[in-house]
Structure to design on (505 residues):
């Protein structure tokens, strides 16, 4: 009989109206990197929450064995004590605390109730260095970008000396080089005998790092394979239950007139200093085109679009024209009035009110469309929402479900639905397919094409170069707050984009 460090046997977990896990058996060998794949809503995060004690023993059916011993976790603490450390998809950092405090949350070092702060910051720096990250441990979490926050999560997990490390969608917010750093760390941990469960929608990574892969579909386990016995196409077809032949539905678009022009945009650091986050950016957006914005993390892409949208804290100067008319956009409401929409990269911070329903979130930015004489017409509200839920194939038990009960990818679709409902002329998409499975990505690309056919101009920020190359008509490359290059998609290659994204080195 094979020796497993972890066995989850016949796990069934139900939520009102959803069977999230249906008799799933999942076995992990000691020291392996085991990938867990499946479409949005397949049950990956739920399975890991069962393992992590988030759903206590008794709220699911089935058994968990660690080193052949049955485990009945009542809470997260007990699971951690058994050597399990999970980095959740929606991270759990406390934004008002600094990096060091977060890493040591719940286990501050020291004796007799006195915290050894020197030790805390020293150890934190050490972990961060191991991660190849140059982050000051005194920085507050809220001042870090999403990618850096993610690496702090990894540091936090490492500090617990985990036997089994679970990473739920860790790379979604990371840039290519950070992903490489993370892969390096995982290989090191593997040498030290740490077992790792790795959830990712990026199959390239899975095939790069994993020893075996388990595929879930609709809450059921489809099978476990040695990575060398399977390929990406096969994994995809097992995940979606059908063949998917192309990744990017490229269409030829004929760009129309200029709908928006940005001239000499300067954006200042929100701290009030003179340093520029965006330096003299000028560009045009045409009706019926997809403009891709490529660049590394920290290049200023998010700052560029959020400041145009009136949602950035720093001061700005320069001019914005919409349909040839100069406009003043000082807050998001001004942007919406002028026909702009923004799907932001951090869906928790700007996109969603997690405690509210799918309907409320979807209609959030288009209240006027569902109101009669200032009163919400719930019939209109329902019809509008259900249309988008159907069109985007949002997986939800019903429209009253709170969005924090949806899987990560389905939350992202709700953000998209919210902005589509405003019927924007210009739609900014900041990392629109982050954390979204291949099948749903394809649906989102199709929706983008459909919008472009209707004459919408789309500006898409993406850190995934294949996506930039696969979907954009035109590509801007940013580095250090400036636009460094512009390409027609036909002339662009990964190498050329990387050349400018890294400052021309
Ligand atoms: N707390 C909850 N209450 C109700 N339903 C839930 C809850 N958590 C998850 N679900 C449902 O269970 C199913 C599985 O969700 P889960 O988050 O495990 O998916 P996932 O595979 O992690 O997806 P993703 O790739 O989008 O993160 C989904 O249909 C989801 O809507
Ligand atoms: Mg998930």
């Amino acid at each position: 009989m094979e020796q497993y460090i972890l066995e989850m046997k016949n796990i069934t977990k139900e939520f009102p109206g959803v069977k999230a896990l249906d008799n799933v058996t999942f076995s992990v060998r000691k020291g392996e990197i085991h990938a867990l794949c499946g479409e949005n809503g397949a049950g990956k995060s739920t399975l890991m929450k069962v393992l992590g004690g988030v759903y206590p023993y008794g709220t699911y059916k089935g058994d968990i064995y660690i080193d052949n011993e049955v485990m009945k976790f009542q809470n997260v603490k007990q699971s951690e004590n058994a050597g399990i450390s999970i980095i959740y998809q929606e991270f759990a950092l406390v934004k008002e605390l600094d990096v060091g405090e977060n890493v040591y949350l719940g286990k501050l070092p020291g004796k007799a109730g006195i915290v050894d702060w020197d030790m805390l910051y020293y150890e934190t720096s050490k972990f961060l260095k191991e991660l190849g990250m140059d982050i000051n441990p005194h920085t507050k979490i809220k001042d870090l970008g999403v990618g850096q926050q993610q690496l702090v999560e990894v540091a936090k997990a490492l500090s617990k000396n985990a036997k089994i490390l679970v990473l739920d969608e860790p790379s979604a917010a990371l840039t290519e080089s950070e992903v490489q750093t993370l892969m390096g760390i995982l290989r090191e941990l593997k040498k030290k005998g740490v077992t790792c469960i790795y959830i990712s929608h990026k199959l390239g990574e899975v095939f790069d790092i994993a020893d075996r892969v388990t595929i879930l579909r609709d809450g059921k386990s489809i099978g476990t394979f040695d990575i060398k016995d399977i390929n990406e196409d096969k994994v995809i077809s097992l995940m979606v239950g059908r063949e998917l032949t192309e990744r990017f539905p490229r269409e030829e678009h004929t760009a129309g007139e200029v709908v928006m022009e940005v001239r000499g945009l300067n954006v200042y650091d929100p701290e009030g200093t003179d340093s520029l986050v965006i330096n003299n950016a000028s560009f045009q957006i045409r009706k019926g085109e997809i403009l891709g914005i490529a660049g590394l993390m920290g290049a200023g892409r998010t700052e560029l679009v959020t400041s145009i949208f009136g949602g950035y804290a720093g001061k700005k100067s320069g001019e914005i024209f919409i349909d040839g008319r100069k406009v003043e956009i000082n807050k998001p409401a001004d942007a919406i009035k002028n026909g702009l929409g923004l799907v932001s990269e951090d869906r928790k911070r700007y996109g969603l009110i997690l405690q509210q329903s799918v309907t409320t979130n979807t209609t959030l930015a288009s209240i006027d469309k569902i109101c009669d004489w200032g009163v919400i017409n719930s019939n209109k509200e329902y019809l509008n929402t259900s249309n988008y839920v159907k069109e985007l194939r949002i997986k939800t038990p019903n429209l009253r479900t709170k969005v924090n009960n949806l899987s990560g990818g389905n939350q992202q679709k709700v953000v998209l639905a919210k902005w589509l409902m405003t019927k924007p002329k210009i739609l900014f998409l900041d990392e629109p397919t982050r954390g979204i499975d291949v099948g749903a990505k394809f649906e989102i690309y199709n929706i983008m094409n459909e919008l472009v056919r209707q004459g919408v101009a789309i500006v898409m920020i993406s850190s995934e170069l294949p996506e930039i190359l696969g979907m954009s008509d035109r590509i801007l490359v940013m580095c250090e707050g400036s636009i460094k290059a512009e390409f027609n998609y036909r002339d662009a290659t990964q190498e050329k984009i990387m050349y400018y994204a890294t400052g021309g080195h």
Remarks:
- The longest strand covers residues 4-15.
